[in-house]
Amino acid sequence: MTTLKSQYLVLMVITVLGVFAYVGCTNNDIAGGQTVTLKAQPDLDDPNHNLAGHEHTDGENTADSTILDWCLEHAVPESECTRCNPGLIESYKQSGDWYDGHGVPESHCRLCNPEITFPQEETLKNRRLKEPEQEVQVSLYFRPNSQVCATDGALIQFASAMTAELAGITVQEVYSSQGESVIEAPAEVVFDETETYVVTSTVPALVSRWLVSPGDVVKKGSELAVLQSPEIALLKTSLITAHVNYDVERKELERHSELRRKNLISDAGFDQQTARTEQARAELVSARGLLLSAGLDDKDIDDVIEQGLVSNQFVLRAPSSGIVTERIAQLGELIDPGRAFAMLADPHSLWIEAKLTGEEMRTVEVGQALTFASDGRGLDRVGAEIIWKSHFLDTHTRTGIVRARVLDRTSQLRAGDFGRVKIVHPRQTKVVLVPKDAVQWEGCCNVVFVQETDQRYRPFKVQLQGGNGPYYQVTSGLVGGERVAVAGAFLLKTELKKSSLGAGCCAFEPAG
Questions:
Q1: 508 in a domain, yes or no?
Q2: Number of domains in the chain
Q3: For 358-403, what is each residue's pLDDT tens digit?
Q4: Phi, psi at 478, each rounded to 5°
Q5: Helix %, strand %, coil % of the chain (to 5)
Q6: Are residues 408 and 454 in the same domain?
Q7: Is 417 in the same domain as 485?
Q8: For residues 462 and 448, is the Cβ–Cβ distance under 8 A?
Q9: Terminus of the chain with fewer CB atoms < 10 Å: N or C?
């Protein structure tokens, strides 16, 4: 009964695994590492299984005579491949080197002998490892790879190409592109200081009533607050007096002009009256100017002149259009001359201030472009141009400030938004772009699984730095033109981890 239960449990596990089951599981080294062999669920007894549509290199793109004799599709020498050359089958059978169960020579069957290697494989591996050295700095945002680990030389072997297809493994060719370094740093959106206005008064005054609130949009001349000042009454009195004096002197000048035309007064008398008139006009202009600087506008001043009303109350008006960013003065607080009552800013003129490390500060220049994404809208990036960078670092944070002007005045950014900036530097060197889904962290290294044949995938450590869109930049570990597993890469990593831990399905016996 115990034996029957054990057999039943084994059958249940095989059913759950579906198309996967380890066969020939071994700890034998292949190229200095381990091999994971997967058994196919489809019928492998058929020697014609999965032969349609296969391709092999015939040695293209290499002058190495060893590699010329290699079938990438079936991972055996081309001159010995019985699937490409069925006429060789009989000679293998006569020599006794044939296994009917898998329909291949015994010396070629990796399911029965996972440790099999050919000289061409080592040549191919050595050729791909000969990469040109690239002086590209690896981004600090990626964890470093271990120098030595179980990934070194590991190999994942499927029983057939159909097994990989049923497992959902898809591959994509990587390609070389112009290298670039990317700086990412925290940043904040602030108002453009050149478009920011301080609302002040030249007389001591207190706020008796605010007419606006922070966040209100105002136009130039809009009423901001009602103020009271003991000095404003004196300025209004001076204005009325100056206006009356100027009116008298102006009329007197007109009378002198008529007398001079009739030669009834001398030129000296006319000149004296002209001077008195100009002096009165200057006093009027001065009185108006004092009231303008106090916070009134021309209409307020004209009303004082026309109505002749003198009081210690006046309206503080906006010196420019914008948004009220802050009300500084408190109700009933007497504000000294020159102190700020409120702050106005242009909501469409914004700066981005980013904090960079000392090393990053040395790589950016005024006029360089950057992009900003707020924390709430990570995919909505806004372009900006660097207009200033500090020449010293903060003594506590050891960072410097880079300031950039937002180029799109219609953007939805708001002052006070936090986010991150991205500054891209093109490099002279080439890098390989790999899909982000192809990169797997297997515990100690970033790896990608390179397709050597339709049945074999070898993990390679890669060094990464940031990239645009769905790609990482690979600074070492890959060369352009190689094919890497994308969909299903996580599955390959899982099988790799099982093998490195000595676990997995090693307990299953080979079928057949």
A1: no
A2: 3
A3: 888 888 889 989 989 887 665 678 889 999 999 899 888 899 999 9
A4: -135, 155
A5: 30, 30, 45
A6: no
A7: no
A8: yes
A9: N
